[in-house]
Protein backbone atom coordinates (compact mmCIF):
# COMPACT_ATOMS: atom_id res chain seq x y z
CA UNK A 1 0.00 0.00 0.00
CA UNK A 2 1.26 3.35 -0.92
CA UNK A 3 1.10 6.15 1.62
CA UNK A 4 -0.82 9.24 0.68
CA UNK A 5 1.20 12.37 0.78
CA UNK A 6 -0.13 15.19 2.88
CA UNK A 7 -0.44 18.47 1.13
CA UNK A 8 1.46 21.23 2.77
CA UNK A 9 -0.26 24.57 3.00
CA UNK A 10 2.04 27.45 2.81
CA UNK A 11 1.91 30.19 5.42
CA UNK A 12 1.99 32.76 2.65
CA UNK A 13 -1.56 31.91 1.62
CA UNK A 14 -2.82 32.27 5.19
CA UNK A 15 -1.17 35.65 5.56
CA UNK A 16 -2.56 36.89 2.28
CA UNK A 17 -6.08 35.84 3.33
CA UNK A 18 -5.83 37.68 6.62
CA UNK A 19 -4.62 40.81 4.81
CA UNK A 20 -7.62 40.60 2.51
CA UNK A 21 -9.96 40.33 5.50
CA UNK A 22 -8.31 43.37 7.12
CA UNK A 23 -8.73 45.39 3.96
CA UNK A 24 -12.44 44.57 3.84
CA UNK A 25 -12.99 45.64 7.44
CA UNK A 26 -11.09 48.87 6.88
CA UNK A 27 -13.28 49.66 3.92
CA UNK A 28 -16.41 49.10 6.04
CA UNK A 29 -15.19 51.47 8.74
CA UNK A 30 -14.43 54.25 6.31
CA UNK A 31 -18.03 54.55 5.11
CA UNK A 32 -19.30 58.06 5.71
CA UNK A 33 -22.60 58.72 7.42
CA UNK A 34 -25.32 60.51 5.53
CA UNK A 35 -26.30 63.95 6.68
CA UNK A 36 -29.86 64.22 8.05
CA UNK A 37 -32.33 65.07 5.35
CA UNK A 38 -35.06 67.68 5.53
CA UNK A 39 -37.66 64.92 5.81
CA UNK A 40 -36.21 63.57 9.07
CA UNK A 41 -36.00 67.06 10.53
CA UNK A 42 -39.64 67.72 9.60
CA UNK A 43 -40.81 64.60 11.48
CA UNK A 44 -39.59 65.95 14.82
CA UNK A 45 -42.58 66.82 16.98
CA UNK A 46 -42.68 70.02 19.00
CA UNK A 47 -43.85 68.86 22.42
CA UNK A 48 -44.31 72.45 23.56
CA UNK A 49 -46.97 72.90 20.87
CA UNK A 50 -48.75 69.71 21.93
CA UNK A 51 -48.70 70.54 25.64
CA UNK A 52 -48.93 74.32 25.12
CA UNK A 53 -51.73 75.08 27.58
CA UNK A 54 -51.75 72.58 30.42
CA UNK A 55 -54.47 73.30 32.99
CA UNK A 56 -53.87 75.10 36.28
CA UNK A 57 -55.64 73.35 39.13
CA UNK A 58 -56.27 74.29 42.76
CA UNK A 59 -54.65 72.05 45.33
CA UNK A 60 -56.86 70.20 47.76
CA UNK A 61 -54.86 71.52 50.74
CA UNK A 62 -52.34 74.22 51.61
CA UNK A 63 -49.46 72.07 50.40
CA UNK A 64 -49.09 70.48 46.95
CA UNK A 65 -49.37 66.70 47.14
CA UNK A 66 -47.56 64.60 44.52
CA UNK A 67 -47.72 60.86 43.89
CA UNK A 68 -44.86 59.23 41.98
CA UNK A 69 -45.97 55.87 40.61
CA UNK A 70 -44.12 53.01 38.92
CA UNK A 71 -46.66 51.04 36.91
CA UNK A 72 -46.09 47.67 35.30
CA UNK A 73 -43.09 45.39 35.32
CA UNK A 74 -40.52 48.15 34.89
CA UNK A 75 -37.82 47.61 37.52
CA UNK A 76 -35.86 50.82 37.02
CA UNK A 77 -36.76 53.23 39.79
CA UNK A 78 -33.72 55.47 40.23
CA UNK A 79 -35.20 58.34 38.18
CA UNK A 80 -38.52 58.12 40.03
CA UNK A 81 -36.74 58.29 43.38
CA UNK A 82 -34.70 61.30 42.25
CA UNK A 83 -37.89 63.12 41.22
CA UNK A 84 -39.61 62.16 44.47
CA UNK A 85 -36.71 63.57 46.52
CA UNK A 86 -36.58 66.73 44.41
CA UNK A 87 -40.31 67.30 44.93
CA UNK A 88 -39.91 66.72 48.66
CA UNK A 89 -36.99 69.18 48.79
CA UNK A 90 -39.16 71.71 46.92
CA UNK A 91 -41.70 71.60 49.76
CA UNK A 92 -44.28 69.25 48.26
CA UNK A 93 -45.83 66.35 50.13
CA UNK A 94 -44.65 63.27 48.23
CA UNK A 95 -45.96 59.71 48.11
CA UNK A 96 -43.88 57.08 46.29
CA UNK A 97 -45.64 53.83 45.38
CA UNK A 98 -42.62 51.60 44.86
CA UNK A 99 -42.07 49.15 42.02
CA UNK A 100 -44.43 46.84 40.12
CA UNK A 101 -47.73 48.60 40.77
CA UNK A 102 -50.86 47.83 38.78
CA UNK A 103 -52.92 50.72 37.40
CA UNK A 104 -55.62 49.87 39.99
CA UNK A 105 -53.12 50.10 42.86
CA UNK A 106 -51.90 53.50 41.65
CA UNK A 107 -55.47 54.78 41.29
CA UNK A 108 -56.36 53.61 44.82
CA UNK A 109 -53.26 55.25 46.29
CA UNK A 110 -53.89 58.52 44.44
CA UNK A 111 -57.46 58.69 45.77
CA UNK A 112 -56.58 57.65 49.32
CA UNK A 113 -53.74 60.18 49.53
CA UNK A 114 -55.83 62.92 47.85
CA UNK A 115 -52.97 63.98 45.56
CA UNK A 116 -52.93 66.96 43.23
CA UNK A 117 -50.33 65.61 40.79
CA UNK A 118 -49.87 62.02 39.67
CA UNK A 119 -46.46 61.41 38.11
CA UNK A 120 -46.04 58.11 36.29
CA UNK A 121 -42.51 56.91 35.58
CA UNK A 122 -42.43 54.41 32.72
CA UNK A 123 -39.30 53.09 31.06
CA UNK A 124 -40.69 49.77 29.82
CA UNK A 125 -42.44 51.06 26.69
CA UNK A 126 -45.88 50.15 28.02
CA UNK A 127 -47.01 53.77 28.41
CA UNK A 128 -49.68 53.49 25.68
CA UNK A 129 -51.45 50.85 27.76
CA UNK A 130 -50.63 51.79 31.38
CA UNK A 131 -51.27 55.55 31.28
CA UNK A 132 -54.78 55.32 29.74
CA UNK A 133 -55.63 52.53 32.20
CA UNK A 134 -54.67 54.73 35.15
CA UNK A 135 -56.63 57.68 33.75
CA UNK A 136 -59.71 55.50 33.09
CA UNK A 137 -59.49 54.19 36.65
CA UNK A 138 -59.32 57.72 38.07
CA UNK A 139 -62.29 58.87 35.99
CA UNK A 140 -64.24 55.79 37.04
CA UNK A 141 -63.70 56.85 40.66
CA UNK A 142 -65.04 60.34 39.89
CA UNK A 143 -61.75 62.24 39.56
CA UNK A 144 -61.79 64.98 36.95
CA UNK A 145 -58.40 64.53 35.30
CA UNK A 146 -56.92 67.90 34.36
CA UNK A 147 -59.27 69.80 36.67
CA UNK A 148 -58.80 68.09 40.03
CA UNK A 149 -55.59 66.18 39.34
CA UNK A 150 -52.74 66.69 36.89
CA UNK A 151 -51.22 63.66 35.20
CA UNK A 152 -47.56 63.90 34.17
CA UNK A 153 -45.50 61.12 32.63
CA UNK A 154 -41.74 60.68 32.69
CA UNK A 155 -39.48 58.18 31.03
CA UNK A 156 -38.57 56.90 27.61
CA UNK A 157 -41.55 58.10 25.60
CA UNK A 158 -41.26 58.40 21.81
CA UNK A 159 -42.32 61.78 20.42
CA UNK A 160 -44.81 60.03 18.16
CA UNK A 161 -46.81 59.03 21.26
CA UNK A 162 -47.10 62.53 22.76
CA UNK A 163 -50.32 63.36 20.90
CA UNK A 164 -52.10 60.19 22.01
CA UNK A 165 -51.02 60.71 25.63
CA UNK A 166 -52.30 64.29 25.50
CA UNK A 167 -55.67 63.03 24.20
CA UNK A 168 -55.77 60.47 27.02
CA UNK A 169 -55.46 63.29 29.60
CA UNK A 170 -51.73 63.73 30.24
CA UNK A 171 -50.74 67.32 31.04
CA UNK A 172 -47.01 66.96 30.28
CA UNK A 173 -44.40 64.39 29.26
CA UNK A 174 -40.85 64.63 30.61
CA UNK A 175 -38.24 62.70 28.64
CA UNK A 176 -34.67 61.77 29.66
CA UNK A 177 -32.48 64.84 29.96
CA UNK A 178 -35.23 67.06 31.39
CA UNK A 179 -33.88 69.11 34.28
CA UNK A 180 -35.30 68.49 37.73
CA UNK A 181 -35.89 72.21 38.17
CA UNK A 182 -38.13 72.33 35.11
CA UNK A 183 -40.27 69.49 36.51
CA UNK A 184 -40.60 71.19 39.91
CA UNK A 185 -41.36 74.53 38.24
CA UNK A 186 -44.02 72.91 36.04
CA UNK A 187 -45.78 71.57 39.12
CA UNK A 188 -45.53 74.93 40.91
CA UNK A 189 -46.87 76.79 37.86
CA UNK A 190 -49.84 74.47 37.35
CA UNK A 191 -51.00 73.71 40.90
CA UNK A 192 -52.15 76.56 43.14
CA UNK A 193 -52.12 75.61 46.80
CA UNK A 194 -54.97 76.78 49.03
CA UNK A 195 -54.31 79.63 51.36
Overall structural class, as computed from helix and strand content, comes to alpha/beta
Low-confidence stretches: 25-31, 38-42
Average predicted local confidence, pLDDT: 83
In N-to-C order, the SSE pattern is HHHEEHEHEHEHEHE
What is the approximate shape? globular
CATH topology of the domain at 63-192: Rossmann fold
Q: Roughly what percent helix?
A: 40-55%
Number of strands: 7
CATH architecture of the domain at 63-192: 3-Layer(aba) Sandwich
- DSSP summary: helix tally: 8
Widest β-sheet, arrangement of strands: 3-2-4-5-6
Termini Cα gap: 109 Å
Classify the beta-strand content into a percent band: 5-15%
CATH class of the domain at 63-192: Alpha Beta
Biggest sheet record? 5 strands, parallel
Radius of gyration, CA atoms, in whole angstroms: 27 Å
Tell me the CATH superfamily of the domain at 63-192: Cobalamin-binding domain
Which key phrases capture this entry?
5-stranded parallel β-sheet; two-stranded parallel ribbon; 7 strands; Rossmann fold; 14% strand; 195 residues; alpha/beta; globular
Amino acid sequence: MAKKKKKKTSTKKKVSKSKAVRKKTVKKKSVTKKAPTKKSAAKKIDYKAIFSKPPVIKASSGQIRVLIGKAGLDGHDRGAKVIARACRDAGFEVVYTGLHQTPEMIVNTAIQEDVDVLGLSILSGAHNYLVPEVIKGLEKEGVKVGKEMLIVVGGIIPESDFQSLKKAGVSMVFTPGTSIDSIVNFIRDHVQPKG
